[in-house]
Amino acid sequence: MNVLMEQYSCIKRTREALFSYCESIPYADYVRRLDSFGGTSMCDLLVHVSYCYLNWIGRQGLQLTEWNEIPPQPEVGAVRTIFREIDTLVDRFIHTYEGKWDVPVIVEIPWQDEPEPRTPLYMFTHTITHEFHHKGQIVSIGRQLGHVPPMTDLIYTLYPLK
Q: Over 80: is that where the pLDDT of 157 sits?
């Protein structure tokens, strides 16, 4: 069993619960920017998370330089399509670095002058924890707008309450 592939499979299940939640919300609320969240929206955060994957997994990890541009304020269906592409990149990344998770890769960090070493395990861990951080914010924004979210925590998507 490839543990990271299994872990990512669990992440995709929680993401699906989040996408379904976002689809249940009127588009105007999905793209509504809240001052209480730094002027960002649920949509903005999904796009931000996708760019994190594209940067760390695609550009830094796989040395890819091109991918489809993400339109501003995409509907949830378009975000799903973007994440299907990301899923393919993650699969490739995991297979590329199998057995080399602790071998540093020199990466460019936009806000730093000099490239630095980061392990593939760091890049993978950063992207998935970053996604979960923002998933929590997306759910909180929805709550503030009066939309009750489903259980999107990992444990509930794997072992639903009976």
A: no
Domains, the chain, ordered by start: 3-158 (1.20.120.450)
CA 161 to chain centre: 25
Over residues 88-121, the pLDDT tens digits come to 999 999 999 999 999 999 998 878 899 999 999 9
Q: The pTM is what?
A: 0.91
- Output the six-digit token pair for 91: 């699969």
pLDDT at 160: 59
User: 86: how many CB neighbours lie within 10 A of its CB?
Assistant: 24
Q: Please give the backbone phi and psi of residue 9, each rounded to the nearest 5 degrees, phi first.
A: -60, -40
Burial of 37 (0-12, 13-18, 19+ CB in 10 A): middle
DSSP 107-151: E--TTSSS-EEE-HHHHHHHHHHHHHHHHHHHHHHHHHTT-----
Number of other residues whose CB lies within 10 A of the CB of residue 157: 19
Which tokens sit at 7? 């872990």
Do 138 and 42 form a contact (C-beta atoms < 8 A)? yes
